[in-house]
User: What shape does this take?
Amino acid sequence: MFSLEFMRNAFVASTFIAIISGIIGVFVSARNMSFLTHTLSEIGFSGAAFGVFMSWPPLNGMLLFTMVSSVIVGQLSVKQARREASISAISSLFLGLGILFLSLSNKNASYATNILFGSIIGINHTNVIQVIELSALVLIIIAFVYRDLKFDSFDAIGAQVKGLWTNALSIIFLVLLALSVSVAAQIVGSLLIFVLLTLPAASAKYFVHTVSGMMVVAILMALVGVWGGLCLGYITNWPVSFFIASIECLFYFAALGYNRLRQ
Amino acid sequence: MTDPILRVNNLKVTFPNHRVFENLNFSLHKGEFLSVVGENGVGKTTLIRTILQQLKPAAGNVQFFPNRKAVTFGYVPQFRNIDEEYPLSIRDFISLNLSGIKLPWLSRKERQQVDQIIAQTNLQKIQNRPLGMASGGEKQKAYLAQALVEQPNLLILDESTASLDNVMKYELLDLVKHFNQVTQLSVIFVTHDLPLAQKYADNFLLLRPTSFKYGPISELSEADVKEVSDV
Ligand SMILES: Nc1ncnc2c1ncn2[C@@H]1O[C@H](COP(=O)(O)OP(=O)(O)OP(=O)(O)O)[C@@H](O)[C@H]1O
Ligand SMILES: [Mg+2]
Assistant: This one.
C-alpha cells in the first residue's frame, strides 16, 4: 500500500488534517458552531467550483470563499434565531453558485463528485505541502490565542466579565475554522468535513473533562478514522470518505451509549 | 475604618427612556462586606455593571483607590450558561480565569494557585467531576473559586445564593466571610435575602425606585426588611 506515492501523500495529509480537526473541533463543540461549520463546508464547495471555473487550484478558491464568508458571518450581529435562518439562506445561495460555476466551467460530473466527496487519488506532493503549511499556520495562531480562546469558548460570560477581546477572538476563530474546513476538504470532500470537525470532539467530551484531554482524544478518534478509512478504502476500493464517516459515527454513538450507561 | 477602595459619587445611570438611579453616593472600604438589597428591577445588577465599567454613567463617577489599576475584580454574575452537558471539570473551569500569562499550558505557580483555591473552597473531592453534573451549591462554589483564583481585592457576588437551600447558602457565605476577614477582601453581595445580609454584612445599600438608603447593617430597619421581602 505504501509503495504507491499517492497513498503515502494521502496518509501524510490526513494525519495533519486529523490533528487540526481534533483541536479546532473541541472549540467548535464548545462554541456550538456545528451548524456554521456545515455551512462553511458548503461555501467551501462553492469556492472550489469557482476555483475550477477560474482555472485555479480548487483549494485556493475554497480558501478565498470560506475566509471571506467567515469574516462576514462574524460581522452579522443578529439574534441567534435569525442568525440561523440567515446562515441557511447564505448556504443555499452558495450551493447554487457552486453548481453554476461547475456547469460554466464545462468540467465533467466526476470533478464535482471529487470536490463534494473527496478524492485521495488526486493528492500530489504539492497538495501535501500546502496542507502541512496551512495546518502549521492554524497551530501557530492557536498557540498564540489559546488561553483567551479557551476562556471565551468554555465560559463566554466569564471572559466578557474579565474584559477579554471577545469580538476579535470570535473573528480569529472563524478564520481558523475557515482554514481548517478548506484543509480537511482535501481528503473527505466538502460535504463530509462535518464528520472530522465535529464528531470526534463531540464524542471526546463524554470521556474526558479537560480541554487538553478532549483535544487528545478527538485527535486520536480522527486519526483512527482517516487511517482506517484509507486502509479500508485501499483494500475494498470503496470510497475512503464512506469509511471515515462510518468510523466517526461509530465513535459518536459509542460515546452516547457510554454516557447513557454511566448515568 | 481602613482606606476606601472605591467611592461612588452622584452616580446616575440611564437606559434609553429609562432612568435607573441618580445621585447615588456610597463608599466601600478595604475588608468591608457590603450588601446591596432592593426589589427586582430596581437596578442592582446595573449598579454592579457600572462599577465593573461595562456601562457608562450618565453623570457622576466611580472612583478607585489608590488608583483604578490597584483594584482587581472577582465577579460572580447573576446568570451563567452552564448546562448539564457542560464538559469541563470543576478544576479546568476554575483555571480558565488564569490569564495573566498567555502560554498555552499552566505554569507551576498557576497550578499551585488552582490547588490552593480548590483546597480553600473545599472542592478537592469533586475537582475532576464535570461542572455540568455538579449540584447548584457546588456550581456556585466553583464560580466563587474561579472568581478568586487570581486573588482579586474586590469580590462581587450577584444573587449567588438565590437558588441555594438554607444549609448551602450559609456554607457559601461562611467561605466568603472567611476570605473577607483573613485576606481583607472587600465584598459586594447583591441579594434579596435580608436575614443573610444581616448576618454577614458590615454595611448595606438599599436601592429603591427613586431613592436609596445606605448605612451600617444594624440600621436596616424592620420597615426596610418588610419592603424588600414583600416582593
Ligand atoms: N441593557 C438594558 N437595556 C435597557 N434596560 C435595561 C437593561 N438592563 C437592565 N435594564 C432595566 O433596568 C432596570 C434595572 O435592571 P437590573 O437588572 O439592574 O435590576 P436588578 O435590581 O438587578 O433586578 P433583579 O433583582 O431582578 O436581578 C430594569 O427595569 C431593567 O429592565
Ligand atoms: Mg440583578
